[in-house]
Amino acid sequence: MRYDLVLFDNDGVLVDSEPLSNTLLAAYLTELGHPTSYEDSLRDYMGAALHRVHDLVEERTGQRLPEDFDDVFHARVFAAFERELRPVAGVDAVLGKLAADGVPYCVASSGSHERIRVGHRAAGLDRWFEESRIFSSQDVGRGKPAPDLFLYAAERMGVPVERCAVVEDSPLGVRAAVAAGMDVYGFFTAMTPPERLAGATRLFGEMGELLDLLR
């Protein structure tokens, strides 16, 4: 394999959480008096840490979200995860092959450590990710599209940026990987068509294609 480390985004790449979380986010913002459609949520917030939601709402309306916004939103998301969350089709086989071949990998997600762990347990992916392989925007000062999270994960894993491959499904994540100086493989879906992932090193639409691209 051409890379010494594969960094996976989490939501939409490992776990099929984007439809759930963006439906809930749009509904909650609308409930709070900030009308937001599902499509608005995907466009503005997909791949971002929650601080971006706070920042954009305040920038656009001059109003701050409630102090308990994050806690309430996470409670709703985690309940939905327990009921409905599934792994992205084909990702179990990809992780199994990387592990069998001894290729280092990790997750670098805008979500909190708790969100990552809850999602992995619900989707049955926790066996692939011990704590040393989990990196969150909580670990750095700025979330995506800043490169900080990817740079931090690579440093902690002991791999130079030019030997890293990032797997992302959001425009913000692609921008962050490019800014970090890493190759990035854009996973396009119905929620993120290929044109939204401009800047990716390569694009792919089925998880089963990824291993061949990394070789």
What does this structure look like?
45% of the residues lie in helices and 12% in strands. It is α/β, with parallel strands linked by helices. Strands 3-2-1-4-5-6 form a 6-stranded parallel sheet, with helices on both faces. Helix 8 (171-179) links the parallel strand 4 and strand 5. The protein is globular and about 50 Å long. The relative contact order is 0.18. The mean pLDDT is 95.
In brief:
The chain is of the alpha/beta class. It contains nine helices and six strands.
Layout of helices and strands, plus pairs?
Layout: E1 5-8, H1 18-31, H2 38-45, H3 50-61, H4 69-84, H5 91-101, E2 105-109, H6 113-123, E3 134-136, H7 148-157, E4 164-168, H8 171-179, E5 183-187, E6 202-204, H9 210-214
Parallel strand pairs: 1-2, 1-4, 2-3, 4-5, 5-6
Helix pairs in contact: 1-2, 1-4, 4-6
Shape: globular
N-to-C series of helices and strands: EHHHHHEHEHEHEEH
Rg over CA atoms, rounded to whole Å, is 16 Å
* Proportion in β-strands: 5-15%
